[in-house]
Amino acid sequence: MPSTPQNLGSAPPGGVRAPTGTSAHDPLTYVPNDLSPEAADEMRRNQPDEFVRRSRAAMAAHVEAMVGFLDAGAEVFDYGNSLRAEAVLGGCERAFDYPGFLPAYIRPLFCEGKGPHLAYRPGVPLIWRTLGADYRLPPAGDHT
Predict the structure, then answer these.
(1) How far is CA 49 from CA 43, 54, 56, in A?
(2) What is the distance between the alpha carbons of residues 10 and 28, in angstroms, rounded to a whole number?
(3) pLDDT one-digit tens code per residue, 87-142
(4) What residue ranges define each of the domains in the chain, with the CATH number in brackets?
(5) Could you give the angle at the alpha carbon of 67 between the alpha carbons of 73 and 82, nearest 5°?
(6) What φ, ψ does residue 4 adopt, rounded to 5°?
(7) Which residue from 25, 60, 75, 141 has the least number of CB within 10 angstroms?
(8) What single-letter DSSP state applies at residue 105?
(9) What angle do CA 58, 61, 65 make, to 5 degrees?
(10) Angle at alpha carbon of residue 17, lines to 116 and 109, rounded to 5°
(11) Rg from Cα positions in the chain
């Protein structure tokens, strides 16, 4: 179920995850809800300031729906995609009431000594650090 104000009333209580992976790092790439892709392209070219204002307002509505799901008992998070920061600029006061994915799920694993520790070893090429697949290094412990 998408995290939209229209779907908030139909959210089942508790046990539901409402993540968002929306790209919001650049408000010129976030299409406001009330524009077609063609109208968005035209406004982006001819009225970029208005486009950004409307994009941020749409992001605020998106995040307000996510906060509504949170208030209804859903587990809510985003992927650190600037959606919450842009929503604040669009007028959402509770944008940071829910966490990002890393602090909510990955950081606690690191605190228990679990996770992709190879990704943080110096001297390992980035692709191998990212994949955690540098076989020249000994295992750093249980990765499960």
Answers:
(1) 9, 9, 11
(2) 30
(3) 999 999 999 999 988 888 877 877 776 665 545 455 555 544 444 444 454 455 55
(4) 5-111 (3.40.50.10730), 113-144 (no CATH)
(5) 130
(6) -130, 155
(7) 141
(8) I
(9) 140
(10) 25
(11) 19
